[in-house]
Design goal:
Number of strands: 8
Structural class: alpha/beta
Largest sheet: 8 strands, parallel
Distance between the termini: 22 Å
Order of helices and strands: HEHEHEEHEHEHEHEH
């Protein structure tokens, strides 16, 4: 069942790529497994899937310890500075860098472990008060501030668009994030060369792919509705 769901999402991504003149290989699907049991992850692992995203540090660390070591984990949720130490060196990428203090903490702990951690800067494109992220207006200044940190490598931008039944309503936000990345790259900021756009979830990932997403974060369409009681 989960494999069928995964295959359907991958098929939809491929169709969205075809519509927008892209290659399916340009888009990475993160199966977002937050609140889901390890048995669900293993069901997809046994079907040869290796790319998973988690929102909560404690849950992520537990799954990393328990599950096969060749899984590529991404930290996609809000990250507190005091939790950074638990995941540095254990995740392929941190998607949610939205403050200088957090960037500095990731860099400091990465350097201490002889690492460089790939990160994305979270942008609050829709300017929602309930969402984390750097504002569009402050993005360039923020990137210039963190560009010299030696323990991180800024790979691109991330956003969480508003929840909506009509995915078309979020197209403008995805298009804006893509334009922001293009504009930033044209400014040739030292140590900033970005290529990743993490955007699009279950309700709107196809539109996100059409607008240039290189990473989509899909949970419900693969695993079903989440259970927050556990």
């Amino acid at each position: 069942m989960l494999k069928e769901n995964l295959d359907k999402v991958l098929e939809n991504i491929a169709k969205a790529c075809e519509r927008s003149g892209r290659k399916p290989s340009d888009v990475k699907l993160l199966a977002v497994s937050k609140t889901k049991p390890e048995s669900d992850i293993m069901e997809l692992y046994d079907a040869s899937y290796r790319f998973f995203g988690e929102n909560y540090v404690q849950e992520l660390v537990g799954k990393i310890e328990d599950l096969p070591k060749d899984i590529e984990w991404h930290m996609i949720g809000h990250l507190q500075r005091n939790k950074v130490k638990y995941i540095v060196g254990k995740v392929a990428m941190i998607h949610s860098v939205e403050s200088k203090a957090l960037a500095e903490q990731i860099s400091r702990l990465s350097e201490a472990n002889g690492l460089v951690t790939d990160v994305l800067v979270e942008v609050n494109v829709a300017e929602e008060e309930s969402k984390f992220g750097v504002s569009c207006d402050m993005l360039e200044d923020f990137l210039r501030e963190i560009a010299q940190l030696k323990g991180i490598r800024v790979k691109g931008l991330m956003t969480s668009a508003p929840f909506t039944e009509n995915a078309e309503e979020n197209r403008k936000y995805f298009r804006k994030l893509n334009k922001l990345m293009v504009d930033i790259n044209l400014k040739n900021i030292d140590n900033i060369s970005m290529s990743e756009l993490s955007m699009g979830m279950t309700n709107d990932y196809e539109v996100a792919v059409e607008e240039g997403a290189t990473i989509v974060r899909v949970g419900t369409a693969i695993f079903g509705a989440r259970n927050y009681k556990n």
